[in-house]
Amino acid sequence: MFFCHSSFSLILILLLLSSSSSTLQIQTHRNHTLHNLHLSSYSQKNIMDRLKSSARLMIVSDLDHTMVDHHDPENTSILRFNALWEAHYRHDSLLVFSTGRSPTLYKQLRKEKPMITPDIAIMSVGTEITYGKLMEPDDGWVQVLNQKWDKDIVIEETSKFPELSRQAETEQRPHKVSFYVKKEKAEQVTEALNKVLKGRGLDVKIIYSGGIDLDILPQGAGKGQALAYLLKKFEAEGKRPVNTLVCGDSGNDAELFSIPGVHGVMVSNAQEELLQWYAANAKNNPKILHASERCAAGIIQAIGHFKLGTNISPRDVSDLTKDIENAHPAHEVVNFNLLLEKWRRAEVENTELFLAGLKAVSHPTGVFIHPSGTEHHIKDHLNILRKVYGDSQGKPLRIWVDDVSASQIGSDTWLLKFDKWELYGEERQGCVVTAVMSTKESNWFTWLHVHQTFLEQSGKQEWMF
């Protein structure tokens, strides 16, 4: 019987849970436990303590034109990566975003693109390190960067170079001063600046990338140095990642590939300056791959190329009801939401057998509570589910989950928490989901209770289910 597939049981239950005219909440007598579920990625301490042993894989990826493809309006590759990471890696691995963007522009990108939450963010070209959703700063890194650095002197000396055009104030950070400079002037200006600033007693690093951006940092800063600092920190805890994969497309990513022991992938759309660095420094290095795929698809390709783990995203699986190779609550959550997306886009068949399965795998005492406070039994929503089939057919609806935490709280009981997002064109809706799931059989997941609440930064749209 196909109802015994773990993915299918979860998918059926959660499709039903999500079938009302708005996001539903389930009330449970375990409220205290639910709301005290530990949140991975909320602080530096939690990041360091979340994994009981070394991370199976740590991915360190640039964002613009690496993880995020700005030429992909459907966000296909990053959504594939999101599903892969949350289903197979979040629970025992680490995700690090390493970007030249300031915190302001980083947060802006997160609002524009369907990005999941990293465990660690390296921002402002390696001059800022923060942890988790709250973006808690690493004070130790600040102390490292203060050595032989004086921002006022940098500003004073750069003002004497008419070739430099100062970037926006949001991009001027405590340990980074940023400009635009024409490509033909970059080398000359860099050499002159290095000489002047060294004469003033500073030890700086000047990075030119993207054919236009020039960043002046403390010598100890940079994406590579920030990664080296993190690896040393994990090593001190006895938790250095088993494998690290660095991913980039531009000149300011070159340092990442120079860290000893890491695997690296240059996405197929890598810029000229990174390709030149590769030709001069790493052409014969078997640990560095020039992918044939763009952006996040190239990262997925590299995971498989280096045999770092599965690189089959749930979004690449044609029949999610049979995708039971790795029965895990997080895997089930991802598969459910993908099938919900397909259900509403009419990309799966609407059959009575499917609907009957919903009732068969739902817990008889399961109760939904709508955000308005209205209570519903699971079985009462079958008719609503029928009504919403294909409501987004031919429309730009995409659904993904973020930051899935799964804790086993009994011999056959799991406590889950994750963020669920729906993107409809340019509109976005999100909710926090806390749920209890049981596993009565090895491949059978039954949903007992689900509690969903709208995220504060999320508008409440009628198309959210």
From TrEMBL:
Pathway field: Glycan biosynthesis; sucrose biosynthesis; sucrose from D-fructose 6-phosphate and UDP-alpha-D-glucose: step 2/2
Domain Sucrose-phosphatase C-terminal: 329-456
Keyword Cell inner membrane belongs to the record: no
Catalyzed chemical reaction(s): sucrose 6(F)-phosphate + H2O = sucrose + phosphate
Domain Sucrose phosphatase-like: 56-307
Signal peptide extent: 1-23
Classification via InterPro entries: HAD-like_sf, HAD-SF_hydro_IIB, HAD_sf, NTF2-like_dom_sf, SPP-like_dom, SPP_C, Sucrose_Phosphatase, Sucrose_phosphatase_pln/cyn
Principal EC category: hydrolase
Cofactor: Mg(2+)
EC nos: 3.1.3.24
Domain of life: Eukaryota
Gene3D superfamilies named in the record: 3.10.450.50, 3.90.1070.10, HAD superfamily/HAD-like (3.40.50.1000)
Keyword Signal attributed: yes
CDD domains: HAD_SPP
GO molecular function (one): sucrose-phosphate phosphatase activity
UniProt similarity note: Belongs to the sucrose phosphatase family.
Role according to the record: Catalyzes the final step of sucrose synthesis.
Protein name: Sucrose-phosphatase
